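Q: Could you predict the 3D structure of MATE family efflux transporter?
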Amino acid sequence: MNPAEPKKASPTLTEGPIAKTLFLFSLPILMGNVLQSLNGSINAIWIGKFLGEQALAATSNANIIMFLLISAIFGIAMAAVILIGQNLGAKKVDEAKKVVGTSAVFFLLLSIIVSAIGLIFSPEILDLLNTPLDARQFAIDYTRIIFAGVPFMFGYNLVMAVLRGSGDAKTPFYFLLLSAGLDIILNPLLIVGMGPFPEMGISGSALATFISQFVSFTLLLLYLYWKKYFLRITKDDLHMLRLKWDIVRSLIQKGLPMGLNMVVVSVSNLFLIHLVNSYGSEASAAFGVATQISSYVQMPAMAIGGAVTSMAAQNIGAGNWDRVNRITWTGVGFNVLLTGLVVICIHFFNREAVGLFLPVEGKAIDLGVHINNITLWSFILFGVFSVVAGVVRASGAVIVPLVVSFIALLLIRIPLAYFLGYQFGFDYIWWSFPASFGIAMLLNLLYYRFGKWKQAKIMPTAKPA
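A: Sure. Here are the predicted structure tokens for MATE family efflux transporter:
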């Protein structure tokens, strides 16, 4: 394609074979999720190796803050994906551009406010988290630089949302690959000071992340304008760079519940950690390793869930409800296949997988193997829930999936885990996973079949079912 020619403006997710389109669209999302996890793990290794436990504890505290920020921005970015997808499905390119313009201004203002608050109040925020005194200064130095990079992190998430909403998942992955590669390379150079690079300690790790996000975001914008991407804001579109309050209202009303869903997951895990810690350090270590492994098991479901949201949004905008239904069940089938394959592979090499993180001597490795044996297969149920919820959210119905998550994780899993743990012991805690995921899947399927999610409104031009 000649870069002087504008990119085709018609949506690509409302036509063609569903299975092939869904697979090719979800694959870059899946690879991006894996890449981000590996990036975080490798950086943690650099920090732990060069700076010790206090520095590693500092980054853990900073990461809790960043998770909350990412949770909020994830929801609003997903709302932008849905708004853009529905408008493009309805062939309203100008309306999609208005969403881009309003989102750009909104994200810019939000990022400046968050960045300023973080830079000024980092010590107070970390004190609220009860950050250990020996890690406090490390955490302050690290967190302030990370907060300074918030505009670039928010900006990248917005551009990624715009691209996915228009049916492009490959371009965000390429620039995420660039960002992760730079981050991994710069971390040791800036931490210990190699060659021309100064020795900056924990600040060097944060600066590496800052630089990688800035470079990736800047080059992504330049690339999109060079390719004349059809949703870019040109000088003739400058009037769209303003806050349209109906769009802002939709972004917040639909985005916050999706962000809160991540908060519900986090709170559920905190309660579970509290319970597991009562069984001693070996139990805590086993649970930590099982959580690491399960984070990779969940990735196919998360990727497919994100892909079906973009595909369903465009088809809902176009009024292709029969295709939306086929997208749903194709996504469910892909999830069962891919997550099932990952689960089977880990079960065959369960002890070896747990042994990558734990010494072969001691009780922890046996506890980790036991946790995996009971919990891993239940993530297939989680995947079905995730895919169906992704389709439902694409219509603008975001409250019921949040309520289902709240019921499953906080009203079923946690009380059941505590009951089983205190009544029967540590080994029985983990049956709360298949129970909660099974109920979440069932509730979501019932809502998909009998609920009024097709009547939800996020964009006035969407055709009703």
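Q: Anything worth pointing out?
A: The chain has 16 helices and no strands.
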